[in-house]
């Protein structure tokens, strides 16, 4: 599989009328504020949408152009790509876009200029690459256990793929690991094949902060634009039951994300927050050229000794940015106006057009 030819992408970009750029994305995930933010910055907007799911984009009035497809994965079809290029589109990738289009096809077949570094998307998708980048960034991450036989403390067991935490479990010994694996198979939450792919890591007891950064390649600066925490089912429900009743109910906790809420972190922790963002950007410059570009998110747990531990990374806009479709406490302090992550992306594209540096922010 060969990756998209950068020169071909630049040739496409060169043919675009830079005064008539459209910002486009797939109608799902964070598209409402991506499109709204683009309009606020004066761009035309386009949404690629599965037939029948266009209603929110019509009713909220965020899309100027609708490209309706039978299924979301059709966004990589040649006719859809052509329509996008005809509109001078810059695509903003998000989690659902990658899931539906398929990472392989985004990397090798999708010839529409894309905001950000498309090569880094694989680094969030593959756990080993993600760990490599976080370790190179000198960021504190949970200790990894190579085998269930080595479990000597409470661990969290995860499985590959975006399944919203379904099938994850907590165990404190090799025996408990074996028992819970069988239980998960019986429930058909995991398959026999998943067992050897189980990722076992130290359970970090702390509060959840998902930190939404924006790295401006134009300014070479990391911004903290917002933070959210997650509502997870059924673990959040389980914790509302007194401990003695939890035992009797024998509920197995799961970590399926169902929503997000905005949070702020203790002000004295902000230096640590900026440090981990800066460190990741520096390491990415070395490992995944041209490095981080635009939004990224570090999902963290903050322990009672005030250490921020990163257990997951998104190398593109994260769903938790929906908590600040208008502004977050941090984006307001930074910009003094309504600033969503979507609008920040559009602002970067606008600045790049004005400085004639669009090639710096797209791949
Ligand atoms: P993930 O799929 O990695 O985003 O994890 C889903 C959820 O599991 C997180 O939002 C946390 O609530 C929890 N979690 C993940 N990793 C850990 C860990 N190492 N220690 C404690 N909780 C974790």
Automatic annotation (TrEMBL):
<dbReference type="InterPro" id="IPR023656">
    <property type="entry name" value="IMP_biosynth_PurP"/>
</dbReference>
<dbReference type="GO" id="GO:0000287">
    <property type="term" value="F:magnesium ion binding"/>
</dbReference>
<feature type="domain" description="ATP-grasp">
    <location>
        <begin position="118"/>
        <end position="354"/>
    </location>
</feature>
<dbReference type="InterPro" id="IPR011761">
    <property type="entry name" value="ATP-grasp"/>
</dbReference>
<dbReference type="InterPro" id="IPR016185">
    <property type="entry name" value="PreATP-grasp_dom_sf"/>
</dbReference>
<dbReference type="Pfam" id="PF06973">
    <property type="entry name" value="DUF1297"/>
</dbReference>
<keyword id="KW-0658">Purine biosynthesis</keyword>
<keyword id="KW-0547">Nucleotide-binding</keyword>
<feature type="binding site">
    <location>
        <position position="232"/>
    </location>
    <ligand>
        <name>ATP</name>
    </ligand>
</feature>
<keyword id="KW-0460">Magnesium</keyword>
<comment type="function">
    <text>Catalyzes the ATP- and formate-dependent formylation of 5-aminoimidazole-4-carboxamide-1-beta-d-ribofuranosyl 5'-monophosphate (AICAR) to 5-formaminoimidazole-4-carboxamide-1-beta-d-ribofuranosyl 5'-monophosphate (FAICAR) in the absence of folates.</text>
</comment>
<feature type="binding site">
    <location>
        <position position="260"/>
    </location>
    <ligand>
        <name>5-amino-1-(5-phospho-beta-D-ribosyl)imidazole-4-carboxamide</name>
    </ligand>
</feature>
<feature type="binding site">
    <location>
        <position position="29"/>
    </location>
    <ligand>
        <name>5-amino-1-(5-phospho-beta-D-ribosyl)imidazole-4-carboxamide</name>
    </ligand>
</feature>
<feature type="binding site">
    <location>
        <position position="96"/>
    </location>
    <ligand>
        <name>5-amino-1-(5-phospho-beta-D-ribosyl)imidazole-4-carboxamide</name>
    </ligand>
</feature>
<keyword id="KW-0479">Metal-binding</keyword>
<dbReference type="InterPro" id="IPR010672">
    <property type="entry name" value="IMP_biosynth_PurP_N"/>
</dbReference>
<dbReference type="InterPro" id="IPR013815">
    <property type="entry name" value="ATP_grasp_subdomain_1"/>
</dbReference>
<keyword id="KW-0464">Manganese</keyword>
<dbReference type="GO" id="GO:0005524">
    <property type="term" value="F:ATP binding"/>
</dbReference>
<comment type="pathway">
    <text>Purine metabolism; IMP biosynthesis via de novo pathway; 5-formamido-1-(5-phospho-D-ribosyl)imidazole-4-carboxamide from 5-amino-1-(5-phospho-D-ribosyl)imidazole-4-carboxamide (formate route): step 1/1.</text>
</comment>
<dbReference type="GO" id="GO:0006189">
    <property type="term" value="P:'de novo' IMP biosynthetic process"/>
</dbReference>
<comment type="similarity">
    <text>Belongs to the phosphohexose mutase family.</text>
</comment>
<dbReference type="Pfam" id="PF06849">
    <property type="entry name" value="DUF1246"/>
</dbReference>
<dbReference type="GO" id="GO:0016879">
    <property type="term" value="F:ligase activity, forming carbon-nitrogen bonds"/>
</dbReference>
<keyword id="KW-0067">ATP-binding</keyword>
<protein>
    <recommendedName>
        <fullName>5-formaminoimidazole-4-carboxamide-1-(beta)-D-ribofuranosyl 5'-monophosphate synthetase</fullName>
        <ecNumber>6.3.4.23</ecNumber>
    </recommendedName>
</protein>
<keyword id="KW-0436">Ligase</keyword>
<dbReference type="InterPro" id="IPR009720">
    <property type="entry name" value="IMP_biosynth_PurP_C"/>
</dbReference>
């Amino acid at each position: 599989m060969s990756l998209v030819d950068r020169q071909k992408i630049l040739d496409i970009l060169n043919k675009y009328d830079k005064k008539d750029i459209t910002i486009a994305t797939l109608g799902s995930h964070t598209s409402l504020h991506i499109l709204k933010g683009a309009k606020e910055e004066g761009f035309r907007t386009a949404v690629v949408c599965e037939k029948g799911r266009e209603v929110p984009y019509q009713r909220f009035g965020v899309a100027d152009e609708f490209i309706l497809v039978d299924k979301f994965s059709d966004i990589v079809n040649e006719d859809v790509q052509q329509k996008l290029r005809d509109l001078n589109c810059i695509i903003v990738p998000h989690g659902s876009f990658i899931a539906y289009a398929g990472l392989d096809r985004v990397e090798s077949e999708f010839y529409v200029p894309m905001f950000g570094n498309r090569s880094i998307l694989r680094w969030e998708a593959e756990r080993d690459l993600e760990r490599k980048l976080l370790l190179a960034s000198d960021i504190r991450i949970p200790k990894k256990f190579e085998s269930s036989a080595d479990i000597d403390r409470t661990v969290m067991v995860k499985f590959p793929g975006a399944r919203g935490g379904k099938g994850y479990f907590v165990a404190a010994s090799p025996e408990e690991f074996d028992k819970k694996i069988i239980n998960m198979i019986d429930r058909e939450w995991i398959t026999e094949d998943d067992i050897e792919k189980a990722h076992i890591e130290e359970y970090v007891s702390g509060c959840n902060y998902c930190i939404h950064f924006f790295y401006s390649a134009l300014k070479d600066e990391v911004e903290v634009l917002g933070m959210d925490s997650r509502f997870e089912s059924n673990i959040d429900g389980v914790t509302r039951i007194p401990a003695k009743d939890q035992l009797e109910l024998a509920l197995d906790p799961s970590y399926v994300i169902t929503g997000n809420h905005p949070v702020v972190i203790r002000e004295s922790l902000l230096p640590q927050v900026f440090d981990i963002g800066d460190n990741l950007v520096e390491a990415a410059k070395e490992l995944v050229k041209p490095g981080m570009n635009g939004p990224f998110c570090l999902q963290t747990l903050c322990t009672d000794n005030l250490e921020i531990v990163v257990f997951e990374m998104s190398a593109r806009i994260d769903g938790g940015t929906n908590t600040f479709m208008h502004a977050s406490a941090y984006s307001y302090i930074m910009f003094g106006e309504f600033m969503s992550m979507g609008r920040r992306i559009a602002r970067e594209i606008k600045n790049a057009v004005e400085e004639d540096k669009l090639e710096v922010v797209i791949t």
